[in-house]
Fold this sequence. Notes:
The protein has about 675 residues and is of the alpha/beta class. Helix 1 packs parallel to helix 2 (about 75-90), helix 13 (about 385-395) packs parallel to helix 15 and helix 13 (about 385-395) packs parallel to helix 21 (about 655-665).
Amino acid sequence: MYPNLLKPLDLGFTELRNRVLMGSMHTGLEEDKQGLHKLAAFYAERAKGGVGLIVTGGFSPNLRGRLHPFSAEFSKEKHADAHRIVTEAVHLHGGKIALQLLHAGRYAMHPFAQSASAIKAPIARFAPSEMSERQILKTIDAFANSAKLAQQAGYDGVEVMGSEGYLINQFICQRTNNRYDQWGGSYQNRMRLPLEIVKAIRQAVGERFIIIFRLSMLDLVEQGSTFDEVVELAKALEQVGVTIINTGIGWHEARIPTIATQVPRGAFTWVTEKVRPHVSVPIVTCNRINTPEEAERILASGHADMVSMARPFLADADFVIKAEKQQAHLINTCIGCNQACLDNVFKGKRASCLVNPYACRETELVEESATSLKTVAVVGAGPAGLACATTLARRGHQVDLFERSDRIGGQFRLAMQIPGKEEFRETIRYFANQIDETGVKLHLETEADFDLLKEYDEVIMASGVKPRHVDIQGIDNPDKVIDYQTLIKEKTFLGSKVAIVGAGGIGVDIATMITEPLENQLDDWLHDWGIDKEIAHPGGLYPFPDTSSDTEVWVLQRRKGRVGKGPGKTTGWIHKRTLEKRGVHLLGGVRYQAIDESGLHIEQDGEAQLIPADKVVICAGQESVRPFESQWPEFCEKLHVIGGADHAGELDAVRAIRQGVELGLKL
Ligand code: NAP
Ligand code: SF4
């Protein structure tokens, strides 16, 4: 069914069992106590699930290349010894694994950062020092030493991180390299560092060891590489002995989304396709590939020889095996939300996955058959209820799932209707199939009450949330005011001027929905973000076109400070940038006075203002739904409350699904 995806890849001295590369992800386990043991379990699951070649998170070849002061390093015999547990676990399941070597350069979050030139990154806290010739040569040796140790540890190869704006990328581009010696100036000089590193590694490890080079093919920053330069480097890398070239898209400091859910699927594979004819080594494409169908389409169209997927393997370790067994409908699809993976890592927490809380907790969340089987009622088929019901049923319990509406999904059903969040539909599809697979008995359009539930051994209330009622004079006028749930469900016409009360995740989503341009083809999306498909401009960028919306929108909050970022740590800037591009007014520190025919009356900085809105949309958070709550105490210990019904404030799908799974494992 996926002939291109599942076809082995012959590398001459070794063979990969399919065209799937699990892209590098920092999980936080790299630095954890007992981390390598947990990391081994994490990778073993993915190898067991059929991945062809796994690439680890980034390990620094020396002290100064660490991203954070306590980031993992791989430079000593003791590191090689410690990592054997990882490589053995992967090999046990027929997989292959490469260690990623990453020198952070000026992205290092410590005062010993080094780079080609002493130019501070806009996202860094410390300015780097300029590397001396001696330091450059020692760094090349460090890469070679680490690669040799990786080989000793049983790794099948290394990936040299040459993209995303890290050290090697900093040498390659004029943006960060204004040296005058043999490591700067002309392009030949700027690309010397990656070539010397690969040469030194090849010399250290011999011919029968995989060297992947992650090449930044589209920098998406000013003074980045042009297409001709990318091709020149790709050819030179082939000459010095790389086995595989992987694609890198966008520096970390680039202000263009490259992996978030609003990026269309496979949005950047055309970049790899452009480079591919110029080299003969296998070339890997990546970014927002999350289904076997999409991966197969990309390979069949000749865009690349392999696909790299990273987050999809947090969402489902068995992605490949399910594709092989014609069970793609059972894959738990990564929805590109970043909420439990990258957001966690950026907060210094361990990565996991919103749709799969088991990810990176393989040794802690273990699903075992229940010893005493029970009858369980779950009320509410939103994310929390679905996660709990299906976990319980997989363990052997007899589960009835009651849902008041005529379909499952809860808040995800609303989310999937927001432009750029269509992926949430996949989670509902996954749970719908899990209900069938696990034998949960689903009762739609069924209002649960005490009498219905009282005979069950366990009762789980996952009854969700409703929009918070807000007290503003005139709020009860339905011609003028609408809550976000009704708006999304009924797609009501709002007029040309809209005020949004509340600037949390949902206020931002609603503003995005209202101002969404009609066209939604990939080329339109690339154009809107100023991406130059010819890569003729350095970095592949040209000035942003005018994308302001015809609908005038105000997003308001009472709190002072930044408005419009929403809750996501790694996606907030994308939301804000999107709204700014569309000309949305973002107002903080407001007091709501009244709503009348003329619009929304507010006060800001002591001054009265009228927002001449045709409609006011209320996105002011949620309240828990707790039906027949007065009778809950009668359930005694068999009652459990999860998700929004438990806590509506900071309603959060990561917490809801994790709570559902954890309870499902406990009973
Ligand atoms: P929220 O994030 O709690 O935001 C509620 C907004 O309403 C705030 O801006 C708050 O600002 C305002 N507000 C609260 N009480 C109010 C009142 N009585 N009167 C007027 N304004 C009031 O809630 P949400 O936007 O509904 O989002 C719910 C959750 O869904 C989020 O926490 C998030 O976890 C999830 N979500 C996530 C994303 C994402 O992209 N990651 C997107 C959508 C939703 P002031 O109090 O300052 O006025
Ligand atoms: Fe994908 Fe979201 Fe899971 Fe991250 S948290 S792996 S983006 S579904």
